[in-house]
Each structure stands twice: as structure tokens, then as C-alpha cells.
Write a structure and sequence with these properties.
With 340 residues, the chain is an alpha/beta fold. The chain folds into two domains: 217 residues, inorganic pyrophosphatase (n-terminal core) (Alpha-Beta Complex), CATH 3.90.1640; 105 residues, Roll (Diaminopimelate Epimerase, Chain A, domain 1). The chain has 14 helices and eleven strands. A hairpin with a 2-residue loop joins strand 6 and strand 7. The longest helix is centred in the middle third of the chain and has 20 residues.
């Protein structure tokens, strides 16, 4: 892919890079890999958690850094916002990602947006592995992979590869799962300092450092306690056959972890998880299936102007208020594609 080669060339020639990275485990692992490869100065910026738009990025901060390059890693910023960011900053922008998006020219390395399968590029860390030949950092790649796939790694084609990498580093699969959940606990509690701390710990000490860190362990313990209580309150509000709708209002950003758990329990269905997150004041309608491709549904909803983003088997609608109109449109589109 010519656009990916352009990213490699830009990375090698830039002296000062600002890295905008997604707040989850794959984003953190990918940012750590990039930092280890860069010979230039690097600065890091976490977008506003729960938001996927230009408004989530601190433009003034990026301007003050005066970077040669702004690298967006694992953050599914819409194509129009990427273009607008480049114009606003008058700085070169490069992207390494694996979310469904409109392909744009220039330094845009996203195999999924270019039409390839998410199954072949299940994490941004895996895209980086193929792009930059970083096999000596395979444990970081595996961490990002496990972070994005969750329990689905158990029947993914790369399961044996992950197990092999873990064995080479004297780690078990359960330990790398715990490392991924530990890093993810930071964003679930909407704790920016924790995300930054986790990235630095991973970069400087490695996966073992994440597993043994007391600060991060306390965050994970807090999430486990709060999550157990939240799961007990999840309600099945509609059973539409292949499509099952669940609802929950909770304080923390547990949308993804609960949505994944529901999708894993109902692996032959499509789950729609309607989750209002009080700390963010936003409603997230999380749609996931381990049996159906959702790419066409996602594309159609984007075409209708809904604020949605995601990948082949998962997408999220973000909105304020009750969002009855948006949810109705989502369900009708979903049922049209998969039936009842």
C-alpha cells in the first residue's frame, strides 16, 4: 500500500512528532511501539475520552508543540476531520489505524478503510507490525491485539500466535489478558493521568511492569468492583430475534466492556447496548456481533448523517439525550440488513 509507505518515510524524516493516540489498550500499546521506533522527539496527546471529532483534540496544545508531523494512532477520527486538522495546523498529518473510515490520500495507513478485512487487521498494533517490521516488539503487538479482541481471541486465527509470543516471554494468556484489562481500566474510569501513566510504564518497563504496578492494580480493582454492580443492572429491553437490545445507565465508561460481554454471551445474535454514561453526559449505543458483519449497516448509518464509527463487527452511535429517533433509525437499518 503506497499510502503506508508514505507514513514510514515521514516517520523516518520527521524530527519532532506529536502522537494523538486512542485511550484504549491497543492505542496505548501502539503509541508505545511507535515511541520505541522513533529517533525523533515525541509528544503525546489523548483526545477527549468518548468523543471522535475534531473538537476532542486540543488544537492549541498541538500548535504550541510545533511538530513536524502529527501522527494519529488507532483513533477513528472521521476523514473530513483529519483533513480539517491538517488545514488548521498547517502541519503534515499521518494516520495509522484499522477502523472503518473513508480512505483519504496522503499519509493514511488504514488497510480496513482501504477495503481489506478487519479479520486480517484486528488491531492497530498488528497494522504497525506489518508496516514497520517490528517483530522484536511482538509482545506489545500481542497486547494491543488482545486488548481489541477480548475473549474473541479464543477463536481467532491469531490465538496460537499470541500464545506463542506469550510463552517466549514467560507469560500466560491469562496474564496478557490481565495486562490489557489493567491498561483499559484507566479510560473506563475516565482517568487521563492513568492512561499516560500506563503508557509510560509499558514503554519503560514492559508488560511485566504493567502487571506488577500497584497504582494500576488499584485502578483495575476499582473497575472490577464497579463493573460487577453495573452488570447486575443491565436489562434486556427488547428481544427482536437476531437482535437483542439491552439498556443501562452507569457512572463510568463501561460501554465497551459490557457490550463485549453481552456479545460473547449471545454469540449467534447482534447485541445493541444502549448505555448512558453519567460522567460524560453522553449516550452510547454499542452494536456488536461475533456472527454478522456490520460494515454495510455502519456505512448506511454514516450516509444518513448519524454520529457513528467502528469496524466490521462493532460500531457505536454517540448522541445526547434519549436519542429515540437515532436509535429507531439504527434498529430499522439493522433489521433491514439481517432480518428478525
Amino acid at each position: 500500500m503506497n499510502s503506508c509507505r508514505k507514513v514510514v518515510k515521514l516517520l523516518s524524516s520527521s524530527k519532532k512528532v506529536a502522537i494523538i493516540y486512542h485511550w484504549d489498550c491497543d492505542g496505548v500499546a501502539s503509541a508505545s511501539i511507535i515511541f520505541k521506533l522513533l529517533k525523533s522527539k515525541a509528544f503525546f496527546h489523548i483526545p477527549k475520552i468518548g468523543h471522535y471529532s475534531l473538537e476532542a483534540i486540543n488544537i492549541n496544545l498541538l500548535r504550541s508543540l510545533k511538530p513536524d508531523l502529527v501522527l494519529i494512532v488507532d483513533y477513528g477520527l472521521p476523514a473530513k476531520d483529519i483533513t480539517n486538522l491538517e488545514k488548521t495546523l498547517s502541519t503534515k498529518i499521518a494516520v495509522i489505524d484499522h477502523h472503518v473510515n473513508e480512505p483519504i490520500g496522503g499519509c493514511f495507513c488504514n488497510p480496513v478503510a482501504l477495503g481489506l478485512s478487519e479479520d486480517d487487521y484486528p488491531s492497530t498494533s498488528w497494522v504497525i507490525r506489518e508496516l514497520l517490521n517490528v517483530k522484536y516488539l511482538d509482545l506489545y503487538v500481542a497486547l494491543g491485539l488482545v486488548g481489541d479482541l477480548g475473549k474473541a481471541i479464543s477463536y481467532h486465527r491469531l490465538r496460537e500466535w499470541v500464545a506463542k509470543v506469550c510463552k517466549e516471554h514467560n507469560l500466560s494468556l491469562s496474564e496478557i489478558f490481565r495486562a490489557a484489562e489493567t491498561i483499559n481500566s484507566c479510560y473506563r474510569l475516565i482517568d487521563y493521568d492513568c492512561i499516560d501513566y500506563a503508557r509510560i510504564t509499558l514503554t519503560e518497563i514492559g508488560v511485566e511492569g504493567v502487571l506488577s504496578d500497584n497504582v494500576l492494580f488499584k485502578k483495575l480493582s476499582t473497575v472490577k468492583e464497579k463493573l460487577e454492580e453495573a452488570l447486575e443492572r443491565v436489562e434486556l429491553s427488547k428481544d427482536l430475534g437476531k437482535v437483542k437490545v439491552f439498556t443501562l445507565t452507569c457512572e463510568d465508561y463501561f460501554t465497551s466492556i459490557i457490550g463485549r460481554e453481552l456479545a460473547y454471551r449471545f454469540r449467534n445474535s447482534i447485541i445493541v447496548f444502549n448505555n448512558f454514561v453519567e460522567k460524560l453526559g453522553l449516550r452510547y449505543v454499542y452494536v456488536r456481533s461475533y456472527s454478522y458483519s456490520l460494515r454495510e449497516v455502519l456505512s448506511e448509518l454514516k450516509g444518513k448523517g448519524l454520529n457513528v464509527g467502528g469496524k466490521d463487527h462493532v460500531f457505536v452511535l454517540t448522541c445526547k439525550g434519549e436519542c429515540d429517533k437515532e436509535i429507531s433509525m439504527l434498529l430499522n437499518t439493522l433489521l433491514k440488513h439481517v432480518g428478525v
